[in-house]
Amino acid sequence: MKYADEFRDKTIAQGLARAIGAEAGARRAYRFMEFCGGHTHAISRYGLEDLLPANVRMIHGPGCPVCVLPASRIDMAIRLVERPEVTLCVYGDLMRAPGSQGQSLMRAKALGADIRMVYSTLDAIRLAEQAPNREVVFFAIGFETTTPPTAVMVRIAEKKRLRGLSVFCNHVLTPSAMHSILENPKMRNIGGVAIDGFVGPAHVSTIIGTQPYEPLVEQFGKPIVIAGFEPLDVMQAILMLVRQVNEGRYEVENQYSRAVTRQGNRRAKDEVSQVFELREQFEWRGLGLVSNSGLMLKRVYAGFDAEARFAMHELRVADNPACECCAILRGAKRPVDCKLFGTVCTPETPIGSCMVSSEGACAAYWTYGRVRDDQVRRLS
Ligand code: SF4
Q1: CA 325 to ligand 1 centroid distance, Å
Q2: Which SS3 state, helix, strand or coil, does residue 16 take?
Q3: Is the pTM of this model over 0.90?
Q4: For the chain, what is the radius of gyration of the CA atoms?
Q5: Which atom of ligand 1 is nearest to the CA of 333?
Q6: Nearest-CA neighbor of 267 among 375, 149, 164?
Q7: Helix, strand, coil % over all residues of the chain, rounded to 5
């Protein structure tokens, strides 16, 4: 692990912390949103907030695909798998994601539904080949990082004439979510204080590149620094954001240049554009309906679209009122602001998606003990 260790060097982290402290000064407050759950986990796991001066605060964003999937989409999947001919393939972290009224895919499976946990789209292809008389539906979820494998799966299915395989598409787009946060005054001014900039996604940006963020910084005048998921990546990105704010600049900067280019991965983008097109709008937990933020299969691949094939209807369901996931995903609250955190709601007995998902902010706080740190701070 020599390579990763180099991005976790304590001395360099302390040096970056000193630089942030010196350059942030005390003249103003800085509030940066880290969009990705991966960054939230790095911040919690390595205690990075403890290295930052009091006037530099991180706000956790909505960048966890399981967390932002609304309960309605889980309910739709549960209704689908009530059909006896359907086998539903899902990634593991989705099994416990909450639907309405305490429903989940895990519970549906316990009641007899044919739900299989898969590790990749290739598993779904294999299942469809092994069971040609079944309707095998892949529950496709994720940001731009997981979309190319789904596109490849559809094209393989077409080539192999796997007519029993289809996709329940829940892929969503990062820049559209950032646009939604920035254009909504309530969200961009959380608690009356404006977000000063974003730590931008790592893995997503390896696919889409830095170019799609450029219209955002131009329109809203907020800097975005694309950053890797190691602690030194995050610290360096924060320093870069502080410098942009101090100099009155708002640009897209790329801290993660070892993996991200301006153009992104052309091959992956080509695969996606051949199979998918934009939905007019898609519902996000926490953000509501966001225009042009979700993908659906193109008409030419409609035969692989589970929503069309099984006449699935859009649902609107209410979230559990006691769970603060929606406010946490907007950055308006922190996990410790939820009354259920660590009492009723833990990773063993999760109530909301932010505790279910390994990328969720509540799971990060619990797993890395940030709740204890917060309690100590309050008592001291
Ligand atoms: S602690 Fe549990 S109930 Fe509270 S916001 Fe997080 S996931 Fe929801």
Answers
A1: 6
A2: helix
A3: yes
A4: 21
A5: 5
A6: 149
A7: 45, 20, 35
Tens digit of each residue's pLDDT (9 = 90 or more) over 169-212 = 999 999 999 999 898 776 655 555 589 999 999 999 999 999 99
Tokens of 286: 């926490």
Q: Express each pLDDT in 2-47 by its tens digit.
A: 678 889 999 999 999 999 999 998 889 999 999 999 999 999 999 9
Distance 366 CA to ligand 1 centre (A): 11
| Pocket-testing residue among 354, 356, 359, 367, ligand 1, by greatest number of atoms within 8 A of Cβ | 354
Using the mean position of ligand 1's atoms as its centre, give its distance from the Cα of residue 186 in Å. Answer: 21
CA diameter of the chain: 68
Low-confidence ranges of the chain (pLDDT < 50): 376, 379-380
Q: Look at the block and give the residue holding tokens 């280019």.
A: 261
Q: Which atom of ligand 1 is nearest to the CA of 354?
A: 7
Asked if residues 44 and 370 have their Cβ atoms less than 8 Å apart, the reply is yes
